Amino acid sequence: MAEILSDDEISENAPAEWQQDGDEIVRVYEFEEYLDGVAFVTEVAEIADEEFHHPEIQVRFDEVEVRLTSHEAGGVTDQDIEMAGRFDDVR
């Protein structure tokens, strides 16, 4: 099982736009059009399914909120940090 990162490790290693919220890291991506956000979610979902590490995703009209945590470990792990970077690469 992966080890949970400390708050300092999360702060040091999470991509710039990601913020810690309890035992998750969170980012809100903004879009001009609703369907642009939906297309982004589709790409993120493909990565998540490939890695079998699924985020919580909330789609709103002009933004998409993505939350990552490693449920089996009980907090944020290196895998969450890696996934956050991969999701940012999609954007």
Automatic annotation (TrEMBL):
CDD domains: PCD_DCoH (cd00488)
Catalytic activity of the protein: (4aS,6R)-4a-hydroxy-L-erythro-5,6,7,8-tetrahydrobiopterin = (6R)-L-erythro-6,7-dihydrobiopterin + H2O
Alphabetical UniProt keywords: Lyase
E.C. number(s) listed in UniProt: 4.2.1.96
Pfam hit, one: Pterin_4a
Any GO BP: tetrahydrobiopterin biosynthetic process
Record-level Gene Ontology MF annotations: 4-alpha-hydroxytetrahydrobiopterin dehydratase activity
Leading EC class: lyase
Protein's name in the database: Putative pterin-4-alpha-carbinolamine dehydratase
UniProt source species: Halococcus saccharolyticus DSM 5350
High-level lineage: Archaea, Methanobacteriati, Methanobacteriota, Stenosarchaea group, Halobacteria
Name of the coding gene: phhB
